[in-house]
Amino acid sequence: MKRSAFSAAVSVVIMIAMLTACGAPAEVIPQPTFTPLGEAPEVPPAVAIDGTPVTASYYEWIIDREPVTFKAAEDQDDVVLPTVFSDDANAITVEVGSPVTPADFVVVVFDEIDPSGKPVESSAQTIDCLRDADRCTVVTADAAVSATVDARRSSDAIVVVHLMYVSDARDEQQVDHVVGAWGARVGT
What we know:
The chain is mainly beta and about 190 residues long. The protein has one helix at about 1-20, and strands at about 45-50, 50-55, 55-65, 65-70, 85, 90-95, 105-110, 125-130, 135-140, 145-150, 155-170, 175-185.
């Protein structure tokens, strides 16, 4: 009986010495749960900004197992953007015509436009819709993924939507990333 008490006391002393010498055990940080995103759409999805359909200004996609690159203009600052009118200067709604949640869903709002009509980089608000729940609410439905973005802006702004999906459309043994960008001038 004395031996058991002695062994227990020694164990406690060793544990205290280890904690003192090595510090307290590190806090266990929970790891995020992985949710499969699904296969990328076969072609770049339709995108609407504040209810108005906008065409892609750029994409790199795997279509019919072949990589395809599209640029609306060689210099992206030269892309002619459609104008979208919105009654709400505090929010932007983006609808993506695919039920698959993209791996990245980023909305950039340029609140200042220079005299030549190009966005001023320093005015950019970048909102990561999959990671910034305070500024973006994402809803997935049967046919689309939509996001409401909290983005206060001036009466004339440029909004760019960046999407990235994971694809094995070219080769099932290799994963590709397909990306696209859609933009519009948003006025009130």
